[in-house]
Amino acid sequence: MVAPDIEVVRFASNFEYLEGEFFLHSALGKGIDSINPNLAFGGPPPIGAQKANLDHVTAKMAEEFGNQEIGQLRAVIEAAGGRGIKRPLLNLSKEVFSDIFDKAIGFKLKPRFDPYSNSINFLLAANLFPYTGLVGLVGATPLLLLPQSRKLAASLLGAESGQNAVIRTLLYQRANETVHPYNITVAEFTNRTSTLANKLANCGLKDEGIIVPRSLGAENRTESNILAADVYSRSYSQTVRELLRILYASGSESKVGAFFPKGANGLIARSFHSKKLPNWKQRN
Prior knowledge:
Layout: H1 3-28, H2 56-79, H3 94-105, H4 119-126, H5 130-140, H6 147-172, E1 178-179, E2 184-185, H7 186-201, H8 240-247, H9 267-271
Antiparallel strand pairs: 1-2
Helix pairs in contact: 1-2, 1-5, 2-6, 3-7, 4-6, 5-6, 7-8
């Protein structure tokens, strides 16, 4: 791989670590280190991750998705010639999730939102992650120069899309259900978190809830929105800047926080902490 391709691919590792640790801890109470500690490259274990109180189907889904993230990490590291990034410090504590859901709803939820307390809370929290990876890969693929790099991105995109579709389908099945004890429906939670993501990214409309006005539905004919897509039913695309603004929950690619209290790792992510950007990355 040429240098730009390597760095774009290595940046994707941040998402694999984030999703893998969240899914595995939620399902099993243990993370990537329990399966393959070499993948962390000396990076610290996550903060606050714990086993969730999940029903059987949701637990098996989370376990499978977590193991898929390990496979994707291995693929990214191999493609980068074994030059993996150090696992970033991740904060997967319920406090981080509750802060984000408070921002999305517009007031402090009581009791505080806990993604580990039950299956529906977990699914609402999990809905934040594969979609971010999906739109990030759509945005990254045109930056890649080599066919093998694009092939890797496409294969990762397929898996992320599948995870996103499964989670949103499970949420849609319960769209009109009120999430106890908040008197807010599942659909409204997804609408609010999507609105927050758009606001943080400062990107316009690139994230949508599972029920939308017909004007945003497929061909203006549906209110169901199991797969978020644009007016041509194409996947949305996001830049690195937009992704970091969301995952830092700060609205700034250079102000770290939330899930990445010390920032994401790799040359691309770290370059936003200075004003010097590689020439090949200016367009991202």
